[in-house]
């Protein structure tokens, strides 16, 4: 049985690691962008970002003063047993978030939307967010922490089937130009795109695509992967660089995830995940052993299943 104390301790440590160390896939992508950047000011900013990555690890403190909105992605094997059940799991995640906010520290960003009441612990109504998915057979629990900015870089548009790929490209360019020209989504970044589903599904997929896939990993569907590469090339041909400055490579990667949708529409959502690319995953086994890793392994074949089983 997986103990709630193990869940709590693991969640606190995930917050710490996510806030401090950028995953290797994102760090290497920024280093590659820095090497090929031809604009002096963007190249300088990219160099400072890379230096900041290293300083954060050396000094064991968050690599960005704005530690975003902490959220969890929970993937469970179907046979996993949790002490106290799902309510105990969520209580452990909330307590871990509050305690990590004070101990690391994380900036207490969560406030009441109207009164601006701040409990100073990143916990509140529907906070932290917790998304779930499940896998057959396993007796393990995967916890992924993401610290994602919550202000800019999110967009949605209802397109129609006749808009096709050109419509997606136009929305993509409209969206990145709106945010990039004002430096409002902290480039270089990953653009996550959700296509299909209902509006809520579409936006959720865009966020997961941005945050939970490794930089450089294509969608397994060849047609979707082709569109990812086309949009990446298109986005990096616009003249934007680091933090809205002139440059060659504002985008590390484009990740697309899809859901079957209404026959009359093609909803599209876009989410940005900035160079403060904060995520970390741990697997807790049935004997309460914990293994940390940087790949969330969220988009499994079962999660993306198409046919009736």
UniProtKB/TrEMBL annotation:
Keyword annotations of the record: 4Fe-4S, Iron, Iron-sulfur, Lyase, Metal-binding
GO molecular function, one term: 4 iron, 4 sulfur cluster binding
Domain of life assignment: Bacteria
Keyword tRNA-binding on entry: no
Fe-S hydro-lyase tartrate dehydratase alpha-type catalytic domain: residues covered: 10-282
InterPro entries: Class-I_Fumarase/Tartrate_DH, Fe-S_hydro-lyase_TtdA-typ_cat
PANTHER family, alphabetized: FUMARATE HYDRATASE-RELATED, L(+)-TARTRATE DEHYDRATASE SUBUNIT ALPHA-RELATED
Homology family: Belongs to the class-I fumarase family.
Name this protein carries in UniProt: Fumarate hydratase
Species, as recorded: Entotheonella factor
């Amino acid at each position: 049985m997986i103990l709630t104390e193990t869940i709590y301790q693991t969640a606190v440590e995930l917050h710490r690691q996510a806030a401090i160390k950028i995953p290797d896939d994102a760090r290497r992508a920024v280093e590659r962008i820095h090497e090929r950047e031809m604009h002096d000011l963007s190249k300088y900013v990219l160099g400072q970002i890379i230096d900041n990555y290293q300083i954060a690890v050396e000094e064991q403190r968050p690599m960005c003063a704005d530690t975003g909105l902490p959220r969890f992605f929970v993937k469970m094997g179907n046979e996993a047993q949790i002490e106290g059940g799902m309510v105990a799991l969520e209580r452990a995640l909330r307590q871990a978030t509050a305690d990590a906010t004070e101990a690391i520290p994380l900036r207490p960003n969560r406030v009441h939307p109207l009164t601006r009441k701040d409990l100073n612990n990143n916990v509140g109504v529907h906070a932290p967010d917790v998304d779930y998915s499940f896998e057959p057979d396993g007796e393990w629990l995967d916890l992924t922490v993401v610290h994602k900015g919550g202000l800019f870089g999110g967009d949605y548009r209802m397109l129609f089937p006749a808009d096709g790929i050109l419509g997606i490209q136009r929305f993509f360019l409209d969206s990145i130009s709106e945010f990039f020209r004002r430096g409002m989504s902290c480039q270089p970044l990953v653009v996550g795109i959700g296509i299909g589903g209902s509006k809520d599904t579409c936006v959720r997929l865009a966020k997961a695509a941005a945050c939970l896939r490794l930089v450089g990993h294509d969608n397994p569907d060849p047609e979707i992967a082709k569109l990812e590469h086309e949009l990446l090339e298109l986005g990096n041909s616009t003249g934007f660089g680091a933090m809205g400055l002139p440059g060659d490579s504002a985008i590390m990667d484009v990740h697309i995830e899809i859901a079957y949708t209404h026959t009359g529409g093609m909803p599209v959502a876009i989410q940005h995940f900035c160079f403060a690319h904060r995520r970390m995953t741990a697997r807790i086994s049935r004997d309460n052993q914990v293994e940390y890793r940087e790949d969330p392994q969220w988009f499994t074949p079962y999660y993306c299943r198409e046919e009736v089983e």
